[in-house]
Amino acid sequence: MTAQISDKLHNDCAAVDLTGLSLYRIVADAPHKPHRWEGGRHELAAQATPDPGIRCSALWSGYLSVYRLAADGGLTLEAFEYPFHRGRRPERVGERLRGDFWLALRRSFFDFTVYVPFRDGRVVVDRAQWRVETDDGGFASGSEFPPGYEQPRKPGLLEKLRREHLAKATATLIVCADASLPLADYTLYVDRNHAGRSIDRGVAGLGDNSVHIRLSPGSHVVTLREGKVHKPDRLASNTLQIEFVEHQRVTVRATLIDATLNLQVQTST
Where are the beta strands (DSSP E) in the chain? Predict the structure, then answer.
């Protein structure tokens, strides 16, 4: 889904620090699980009137709501704006929000949500009653995130997949070589795929000319090749098939002798 433009929130309440947060939704019920567009909206008497024929993928609703958090902690819907309706002026509203509801705030559309409660139409200043979405699928108290604290960015799909892989990757492959074979000039392939960003360089006790990668238990195929992909006589090593068990650490030594690139298992612990 395309990232959506946030509503506008002007904060005149000195008792509440919302620096860096944007308003994406106002919900009626307390959040019990992370959600983006599910759950009931807090109903308002005023209704926006966007032209159904004018839409933008970054603003599917067709309009923006403009709110103001007053010095006394009350929240007012000041206007509706129609940024993609050429020449259309904002509609003034001036409706004060009543009852209990929650602001759903984020640093950006795809980030974690910070839920700020209102009771009887007034903002709850006590951050311990705020709820902050966490990357484990739960919520933390807002008191764990004091004003000015920047919560880590919400991981994207690729980062989530990487974390899931690392959680399962309990075995370690280490490849080392002497100075005559600089591994920075070579590419490691695991299961016939370029290991790429999964590789960490430098292993304690083995120096900078070594690399290591975390793998899931099971059988893996390991090959080393020269990094210059289009070189006509590009060197490629023999292929090792190694069976890994949980928490096993396998060290492979790479050698280059008489233009022959070779891999050999050195230790397994």
Answer: 8-11, 22-27, 64-69, 75-81, 91-96, 101-106, 114-119, 122-123, 131-133, 139-141, 171-176, 186-190, 193-194, 200-203, 207-215, 218-226, 240-244, 249-257, 260-268
Enter the DSSP assignment of 172. E
> What per-residue string of b and e applies to 132-145 under the rule 16 or more CB within 10 Å gives b?
bbeeeeebbebeeb
- pLDDT mean over 24-37: 71
Strands of the sheet with 75-81, listed across from one edge: 8-11, 64-69, 75-81, 91-96
Name the amino acid, one letter, at 5. Answer: I
Report how far apart, in Å, the C-alpha atoms of 215 and of each of 24, 102, 193, 199, 253 are: 40, 43, 13, 11, 18
The neighbouring-strand residues paired with 244 are: 218
Distance (Å, rounded) from C-alpha 134 to C-alpha 151?
9
SS (H, E, C) 63-132: CEEEEEECCCCEEEEEEEECCCCCCCCCEEEEEECCCCEEEEEECCCCCCCEEEEEECCEECCCHHHCEE
| Closest of 189, 210, 187 to residue 266, by C-alpha | 210
CA distances from 77 to 49, 123, 138, 223, 250 (A): 15, 14, 30, 63, 63
Residue 244 · residue 250 · CB < 8 Å: yes
Residues 186-199 pLDDT 10s: 999 999 888 766 67
Residue, of 134 and 215, whose pLDDT is higher: 215
pLDDT digits (tens, 9 = 90+) for 92-104: 999 999 999 999 9
| 8 Å CB contact between 76 and 97 | yes
- Whether the Cβ atoms of residue 93 and residue 104 lie closer than 8 Å to each other: no
> Nearest Cα to 222, choosing from 243, 240, 207?
240
